[in-house]
């Protein structure tokens, strides 16, 4: 029953949306933009600090697994969402489709992928490598995918300044953290839970700021409950399709049980951390920034629920079979 209960962080995210609805404009009083700007670098510095380069590289030789996971994350996801673009009509439907496409273009999540793979008895070094490299690839690939549909429609969506900002805010802090891992890595790992509060607090600030701006601009006025229900259903369907397809491809490629678990878990995940942070860069100054976070928040909650249940069942099955 515990696994079926709402995740506490998901409830906090909903709380931030409600706060933005009832009390918008806090960012005009408190320097939330400044906090998020510098806080983003802090998140990825700590991420790099906890990242053991030797552990990450332990599974690098398993190239088939890596190709499948990264192809699923950055090719399969976007192509599945692109397939329904012809069915979209009007600006409101296109805006929601673009928000789902943003979800599809994001990298895989790191911490939950590794934890779930470990519980299920999968290839943990492979999970660490793929989840970690996914975030670095996303700095380049996510803006490129989004640029296909936003360059012509948004005068301020310029790829080079976005790449530069992502490199300075995300990539550089990651590598600085990795360089200091040998000195402070044990400290960061020991207090990972406490440091995780910082990550989540910053995400909550970004979510509030984005939705506050969107509500003030009236972005959601033209979005009805039916459209939001369709987005939620589409997000669930997207997860199911990718999970099944990566599982099928893993079987066709002759993967071991451990590699199949890693491929399906890592290849079907999307990162709320990267989604929130990237949106603060990609859609900075846009009044509709909040709408881009709706699909990833729904997906985050659903993937946590489903994958945790699957991982626990796999764990129990492995115990009973011994």
Short description:
Helices cover 76% and strands 0% of the residues. By secondary structure, the chain is mainly alpha-helical.
Please provide a written account of the structure.
With 322 residues, the protein is mostly helical. It is 76% helix and 0% strand. The chain is built from 14 helices and no strands. α2 packs across α9 and α7 packs parallel to α12. It starts with 7 loop residues before the first helix and ends with a helix.
Largest sheet, if any? none
**What is the molecular shape?**
globular
Q: How many beta-strand segments?
A: 0
Please give the count of helices.
14
Query: How far from one another are the termini?
Result: 26 Å
Q: Notable features of this structure?
A:
single chain; 322 residues; mainly alpha; 14 helices; 0% strand; globular; disordered N terminus
Chart the SSEs and their pairings.
Elements: H1 8-22, H2 32-50, H3 53-57, H4 63-82, H5 90-105, H6 111-120, H7 124-150, H8 159-179, H9 181-190, H10 192-217, H11 225-252, H12 257-267, H13 272-282, H14 294-320
Helix pairs in contact: 1-10, 2-8, 2-9, 2-10, 4-5, 4-7, 4-11, 4-12, 5-7, 5-11, 5-14, 6-7, 6-12, 6-14, 7-8, 7-12, 10-13, 11-12, 11-14
């Amino acid at each position: 029953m515990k696994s079926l209960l709402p995740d506490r962080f998901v409830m906090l995210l909903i709380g931030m949306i409600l706060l933005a609805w009832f009390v918008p404009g806090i960012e005009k009083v408190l320097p939330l933009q400044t906090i998020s700007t510098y806080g983003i670098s802090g998140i990825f510095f700590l991420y790099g600090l906890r990242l053991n380069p030797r552990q990450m590289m332990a599974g690098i030789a398993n190239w088939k697994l890596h190709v499948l996971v990264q192809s699923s994350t950055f090719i399969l996801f976007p192509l599945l969402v692109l397939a329904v673009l012809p069915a979209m009509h009007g600006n409101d439907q296109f805006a929601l489709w673009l928000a789902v496409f943003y979800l599809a273009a994001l990298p895989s999540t790191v911490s939950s992928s590794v934890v779930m793979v470990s519980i299920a008895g999968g290839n943990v070094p492979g999970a660490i490598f793929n989840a970690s490299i996914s975030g670095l690839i996303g700095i380049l690939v996510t803006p490129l995918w989004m640029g296909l549909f936003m360059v012509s429609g948004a005068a301020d969506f310029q790829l080079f300044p976005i790449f530069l900002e992502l490199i300075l805010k995300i990539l550089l802090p990651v590598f600085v953290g990795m360089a200091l891992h040998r000195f402070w890595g044990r400290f960061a790992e020991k207090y990972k839970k406490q440091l995780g509060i910082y990550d989540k607090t910053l995400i909550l600030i970004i979510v509030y700021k984005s939705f506050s701006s969107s509500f003030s601009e009236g972005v959601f006025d033209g979005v009805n409950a039916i459209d939001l229900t369709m987005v939620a259903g589409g997000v669930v369907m997207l997860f199911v399709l990718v999970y099944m397809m990566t599982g099928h491809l893993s079987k066709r490629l002759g993967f071991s049980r451990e590699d199949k678990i890693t491929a399906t878990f890592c290849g079907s995940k999307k990162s709320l951390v990267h989604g929130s942070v990237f949106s603060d860069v990609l859609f900075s100054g846009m009044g509709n920034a909040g709408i881009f976070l709706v699909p990833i928040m729904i997906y985050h909650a659903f993937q946590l629920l489903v994958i945790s249940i699957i991982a626990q069942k796999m764990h129990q099955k492995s115990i009973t079979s011994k």
